[in-house]
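Appendix B. Extra example for self-study. Work through it before the problem class; the solution is given directly after the inputs so you can check yourself.
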Amino acid sequence: MTEHYSLACRECGANWGNQPTSICQACFSPLDVVYDYEFIRSRVTRERIARREPNLWRYREFLPLPPQENPGGRTGFTPLLEAPRLARVFQAGNLYVKNDAVCSPTLSFKDRVVSTALVQARRFGFNVIGCASTGNLANAVAAQAARAGLEAWIFVPDDLESAKILGTQIYGARVVRIAGNYDQVNRLCSQVADRYRWALVNVNLRPYYAEGSKTVGFEIAEQLGWCLPDNVVVPMAGGSLLTKIHKAFQELIKTGLVEDKPVRFFGAQATGCSPISTAVKRGRTEIEPQKPATIARSLAIGNPADGPYAIQTITNSGGWAEDVTDAEIVSGIELLAHTEGVFTETAGGVTTGVAQKLFAQGRIKPNETTVLVISGNGLKTLDAVRPAPAQPAVAPRLADFEAYLREAGATLPTEVPA
Amino acid sequence: MNIRVHIPTAFRRFTREQPVLLCDAADLAGLLAALQEKFPELAARLRDEQGQLRRFVNVYVNEEDIRFLGGATYRFAENDEVMLLPSIAGG
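Solution. Structure tokens for the complete assembly:
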């Protein structure tokens, strides 16, 4: 079986074929999936892709998928929504929301990365899959493991939102709450993957896993009519999603599916966990790790593995990075819901809040095409949103409803003519 | 100071499969120098062209990232448990 993809070191370039590992044996740096682009170019056209099922496998040649495999499913190909009402608030035009709050099956972009990792877990013969997670990945691994009939072990920080714990356990996965933050969970998982023959998707399958994130980029381009946007605003935890959207755009250019065009990458973080945005703002190329303290738990990674690459991508593209406070995150969630009918989780509040800042700072030009990447669903982080004040119930009588309207100071509605 | 250095599987082919190394080093530079002497192949992979620890290798001392302890300025204490781990995972 020959594949058109393999693992190569991101630093020294050494090629390691295909195996469940994420570390270069020559220099201990991270591995990435590389492809035979001649092969891809000979196989793909816009028309051929357009005829395929609306899921992430429509870009199969660009993914680490053995030629005979056909996973199917409904993951990916989420809506790219025009966002004119949000654009008005930002005093901008041409604004879009890539809505992974409705990604299938678990309502976050992590469904994509688990899809590509799961193919490899099977290919390498693993019976157990798992992950270190800030929540969304936990949900995604648990759900897809259940469907694939695999045992799942999920490691999470103990302060995780209850909805994300419940939304993992319900699939029958073993959830191990670790007394510590994500970076400590991550360190433990490196040791677990080192000792047991388990497929921890974001540890020993990480290069394959991360490739799933590229499909956000492929979809944005296809949904814009095979054009690249001028700007993308992307939430950053480990920093991988941003770099993979960049890789996707480059691959589309390389294979002739889109015109070459500069795209500026803007990274979004929570101020309480902002190692990447801090580095960008200070002009640094390296990460200084932080101890996270933010309601955006899905972004609470203080020592982001792809941080240096995210900094590089942002800086080289002429973009920028910003961060927002917890209060601004909640406002961002409300703003996106009020204007575009999209209820996102805290990470999406970060993206929306940061976008608002970037437009206000003039770093994003109002009339350029800008896409906000909304990576998860608000129903998972209900605790983060201020509860509305409890209101007394209205008696089921028209007179009481009208009294209620007057009390609420609402403009009385126009009556239907008699 | 006598410290114990834990080596992940991925690195052990350069330590003759030893999972834990006993080492006498005052600080991170001392540790890298000691490894250079005993396991030059390992040290060559841990250090970049400038001789600094590579940015994708994390060092933990008693389970804390050494960067929170002062990084290069941290002085090892007797019986410190040191762990070398490649930087991976996220999300």
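Self-check: Chain A touches chain B through 46 residues (CB under 8 Å). If your reasoning did not lead you there, revisit section 3.
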